[in-house]
Amino acid sequence: MQGEEYFHGKGCVVTGAASGIGFALTKALLAAGAVVFMADRDAKTLSTACEQVGAYAGRVHSLQVDVTNYDQVRQMVEDAASRHGRLDVLFNNAGIGSMIGIDEATLDLWRRIIDINLWGVIYGIHAALPIMRRQGGGHIVNTASFAGLVPPAFESLYCTTKYAVVGLSESLRFELGDDGIHFSVVCPGPVATAIFGANPPKDAISADEAARIALEGVANKQGIIALPEKMRQMWRSYWNSPEDFESVLWALARQRRRDFLPK
Fold first, then answer.
1. What share of the chain is helix, strand, coil (3-state, %, to 5)?
2. C-alpha–C-alpha distance, residues 178 and 164, integer Å
3. Which CATH number fits domain 4-237: 3.40.50.720, 3.40.50.1820, 2.70.20.10, 2.60.40.3880?
4. Average pLDDT, whole number, for the chain?
């Protein structure tokens, strides 16, 4: 992996670390020589994941954390900073998906996805910034989605949170970059993880490949890291000429309408 030296010896916290992209990030960071604090709310899955990276004993630690609980998030970053001596990189990666018609969206579902996907990121940032200011710098990496750059139909709840994470990350990148506190936001397209169940899209990349691309972007201090390259090209097309790209979004919307709505 290019940029391995950026992570060597650094203290990294990864939320949602027990599976999917979070676990892939953990493995790649450990291979690059980082000290990793794996955080996840599922104790059993977290224990299994830790066993799988047991070869890195001494550089990997586990923390059971619910990112919707600010006290737990604050304790997570404070423990990591205390045990390692500093908090170099925080990966606010925990999140859930939602592909649902707006008429089916309950207020409880709205609250759940906002609590995890957005408040979980806000809590992480709020807890980490004082530590990073005291130590003179750091890097915060937030996981958003391609649906935080381009708005597919039937993902309105998900898009709401992921667009917010992109905007938050980019605003703080410019606000705090001169203070040595860097921000990156990872915006994956289809990745073969549990978010798709047993049938990921045919063009989905592996979680390991997603982590590799993401970490290269982080090491280069990229702001928005859209991946894989096909998604990056689509985002550029939408950004440069949204009117021309509308035909793609309309076609997707109509296909999903046929798939999801009652006949």
1. 55, 15, 30
2. 23
3. 3.40.50.720
4. 95
The pLDDT tens digits for 88-109 are 999 999 999 999 999 999 999 9
Identify the residue whose tokens are 């709401």. Answer: 160
**Residue extents of the structural domains in the chain:** 4-237
Please answer whether residues 147 and 99 qualify as being in contact, where contact means their C-beta atoms are separated by less than 8 angstroms.
Answer: no
Residue ranges of E strands in the chain: 11-15, 35-40, 60-64, 89-92, 138-143, 181-188, 224-227
Q: How far apart are CA 7 and CA 132, in angstroms?
A: 16
> Structure tokens of 246?
């509308």
Smallest CA-to-CA distance from 29 within 101, 96, 80 is with: 80
Share of the chain above pLDDT 90, in %: 92
CB 54 within 8 A of CB 83: no
Q: Report residue 125 as tokens.
A: 């940032």
Active site residues: 158
**Cα distances (Å, whole numbers) of residue 86 to 77, 129, 181, 252:** 9, 12, 13, 45
Coil, strand or helix at 3 = coil
